[in-house]
Specification:
Blueprint: H1 2-13, E1 17-22, H2 29-43, E2 47-53, H3 61-68, E3 73-78, H4 87-93, H5 95-98, E4 106-109, E5 113-117, E6 132-135, E7 138-142, H6 145-157, E8 162-164, H7 176-200, H8 203-209, E9 219-224, H9 240-249, E10 255-259, H10 266-278, E11 282-288, H11 296-303, H12 306-311, E12 315-319, E13 336-339, E14 343-346, E15 350-354, H13 360-365, E16 369-374, H14 376-393, E17 394-399, E18 405-411, E19 414-418, H15 426-434
Parallel strand pairs: 1-2, 2-3, 6-13, 10-11, 11-12
Antiparallel strand pairs: 1-4, 3-8, 4-5, 5-7, 9-16, 10-14, 12-17, 14-15, 15-16, 17-18, 18-19
Helix pairs in contact: 1-2, 1-7, 2-7, 11-15
């Protein structure tokens, strides 16, 4: 709710421009509230540009076409799938291009303030879903770095794959927006008011509004793939973000902490972690367990690298699926906890946050972006908190004397040792085993 409240407050205070770039938006409470807030900003004369990747966006074309009719709103879909015939067949028939996606996530207002992180626009990312808890992380950035983020946005907005929504679908006749606004406002206003009121109650947002929350003053740099990565054969020359980040990681001297929901390192990734560990660097990797992962095939790809990761000298942790009860939302054990945070911390001084997962899809196939921040104060504070939170939310995965995996954790004050995938049903374990036959390159 802190993250949603910050976005809604930024929209409420926008004077000139709003530029959003996201991988997906769903037709749920978060999606409808966001569209309502964008319309309100546009009514005040704010120019809105909304760039959405098309593949997993569930917001109906009709809704996007409606807001696109507003004279101050432009909606473009990135690398869209044809609307004629079967969506599945259109995807398969054009797989080579359709498989390459824009995974970037940024939210910039008035060219002066931005939010960058791992969240998409859907209920599970903002604690509006009662059945799941997605643990995610954003950075709110103010100052010249916002212009740099906007430069990356513009590169994608102006790229040939960014298609105006009106060129893809004609479900809404011209002039329909004004006719339907009354109905839209009646349905959404009450929900928007309820959600925004709840968001305003967050301690973080109240402190920001009152000017009581201090910011970290720090140098920052945008690391982003160029959109041309998505139209070329996969090669190192087009992997701009991971190339810069990898070179930076090699300079680590004391500690590297990785948080990634999807971790499929490949041989090159294992070698990088081993070289860091052998040079005396503490290396920590925290990712999802089978039970907490929302993409079972990715876990199947990850599982084959667990032993290699541990043998490389890495401290390996997997999130507990029942950790949602530790998030302050009450003792509701039915909520599934999923780690969605994408963070790299280096030497308790440098912090990378963005859309990048540590898997082949992010590294080789999709386009990604994020911020590399130089702040010992900010990063050391976060690293101290993560050391505690990882213990609270995760199992430590290690090898026993027989070379077999063990999961160790502390649950309700008692130490627990598991010999197989913890908190996962036999069916889920079987499914993960079967899916190991899938191609690692697509994970």
């Amino acid at each position: 709710m802190d993250a949603l409240g910050a976005r809604l407050r930024m929209l409420e205070k926008a004077d000139e421009s709003v530029d959003l770039q996201y991988f997906l938006m769903k037709d749920d409470t978060a999606g409808r509230v966001m569209l309502h807030a964008l319309l309100q900003a546009a009514d005040r004369g704010v120019r809105v540009r909304f760039l959405l990747d098309d593949i997993f966006t569930e917001a109906p074309d009709r809704n996007l076409l409606l807001i696109n009719q507003h004279p101050n709103i432009e909606v473009r879909l990135f690398n869209p799938i044809s609307r004629r015939g079967s969506h599945f067949l259109n995807f398969v028939g054009n797989f080579r291009q359709a498989n390459r996606r824009m995974h970037n996530k940024s939210f910039t207002v008035d060219k002066a303030v931005s939010i960058v992180g791992g969240r998409n626009i859907a209920d599970e990312y903002f604690q509006l879903d009662e059945t799941a808890v997605f643990a995610d992380f954003d950075v709110l950035a103010i100052g010249p770095i916002a212009s740099d983020i906007l430069t990356s946005f513009d590169a994608y907005w102006n790229f040939s794959f960014a298609i105006p929504i009106e060129q893809l679908s004609s479900e809404v006749e011209a002039g329909t927006l004004e006719q339907e606004r009354a109905s839209i406002d009646e349905k959404i206003s009450a929900t928007y008011s309820r959600v925004y009121e709840k968001a305003l109650q967050s301690r973080l947002l109240q402190e920001l509004i009152a000017g009581q929350r201090s910011f970290f003053e720090a140098a920052a740099k945008v690391l982003a793939d160029y959109p041309e990565k998505l139209e070329n054969e996969i090669g190192d020359e087009h992997k701009k973000l991971i190339g810069e980040l990898r070179e930076f990681l090699r300079s680590a001297e004391q500690e590297v902490i990785f948080l990634s929901p999807y971790y499929v390192p490949g041989k090159n990734g294992i070698e990088l972690l081993r070289s860091l560990s052998e040079s005396g660097v503490r290396v920590v990797v925290a990712t999802n367990s089978l039970a907490s992962n929302n993409h079972v095939p990715v876990h199947s790809g990850y599982a084959r690298y667990r032993k290699d990761t541990i043998r490389a000298g890495v401290e390996l942790y997997e999130a507990r699926a029942d950790a949602g009860r530790n998030t302050g939302r009450g003792d509701n054990s039915t909520e599934k906890f999923t780690l969605h945070t994408k963070l790299v911390l280096v030497d308790r001084r440098y912090l990378f946050v963005g859309s990048l997962n540590l898997d082949p899809r992010s590294i080789d196939i999709n386009a990604e972006m994020g911020l590399l921040i130089d702040s010992a104060e900010m990063t050391s504070t976060l690293a101290d908190a993560l050391d505690e939170l990882i213990q609270m939310y995760s199992y430590r995965v290690d090898l026993n004397s027989r070379g077999r995996l063990e999961w160790r954790g502390v649950i309700d004050g008692a130490e627990v040792v598991e010999k197989s995938e913890p908190q996962a049903s036999p069916w889920l374990r079987f499914k993960a085993w079967v899916l190991r036959i899938g191609p690692e390159s697509q994970l």
